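Explain my protein.
***
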Amino acid sequence: MSEKTITQTHSADRLPNARGTNQSGMRARNEKLVLTLVRRHGALAKSELARMTGLSAQTVSVIMRQLEDDGLLLRGEPLRGKVGQPSVPMRLNPDGAYFLGLKVGRRSSELVLTDFLGRVRDRTRATYDYPTPEATLDFATRSMNSMTAALPEPACKRLAGLGIAMPFYLWDWAQILQVPQDRMDSWRSANLQVSLSEVSELPIYSENDATAACGAELVFGPADGPRDFLYFYVGYFIGGGVVLNGSIFSGRGNAGALGPMPVAVGAPTVQPLIGVASLYVLERRLRQTGYEPSGLWETPDHWSIPPDLLEGWLDSAAQGLAHAILSSCSLIDFECVKIDGWMPPDIRANLVQRVGEHLSKLDLTGLERPEVISGQVGPDARVLGAASLPLSDRYLIKT
């Protein structure tokens, strides 16, 4: 079945596949389309949705009435002052659905409960030297049971799923984690998604942690943001994602794995980006100079780090990122680069500024220089990206 492409001039309306169909049998897709547009715009009236989707006013009325009856939409105050009947904007009901998001990292795991707007309602974290399948499953199970037990029964019935954001091939990182290989080899045969599905009736989803963070930027980021951008998330290891026409481009499953990209930092040395722009590099420098690095993983709100060590890491990370951006833009002319990570906002802003400065020193002949900005989601991007997996599958169209 062919679908027409919407031709609106407003940037906020640039949603691929934002055309509904009045044919029978497509109600589920139309409902997702309406929810996607309402999420993007904050609140919309029936007439606006009909214009954006190409659906008839009657079809839109039926959809919105059903979504309101299902508790997914809330009716706003009528907007008067125009000719005809006052329009009534509809917005998402924060309590319309709930989602669990599990982030499994190299130094910590975290589980959050979010509402329909992506706001965190509950949270629990655990830090460790390295993750194991058994301890991770135990943490997730206990935390999930505790959170759901604290929910009132109506809210429990609106739990829509659990998403997992975790690195692929965890066993490959034993050397960098400075953990004996046999301690990490159990991940080779472990399948956390399957294990959790055996102890929970919720639908379970799984995605690479950096890709999930990129997904959070798409779902919870600004509605009028760029439709093509390169995304970096600076965590224990740096990773990222590629967004084209408003959708994550995953290729055969590993597109946007920016960590292995070779960069020239301290030329003539060429090394992977992961070796200069990851937080494990900063952790090692702290440990080597006699400082306890555990504070890096306890909170992303404030770090107490000697200025000279932080300065050195920031500059080398920024150089590496600038070279990675240059290489990426030689293949795809990204209009924007977003940088986010597990770090305080002021340090992230400092990093973004330095990346721009280093990028301006590189030879960009024949290339369009992209805008380099901070991501909008912040340190929670990975865990919110995990929670967005069931949200996107159940309630949003794939853009």
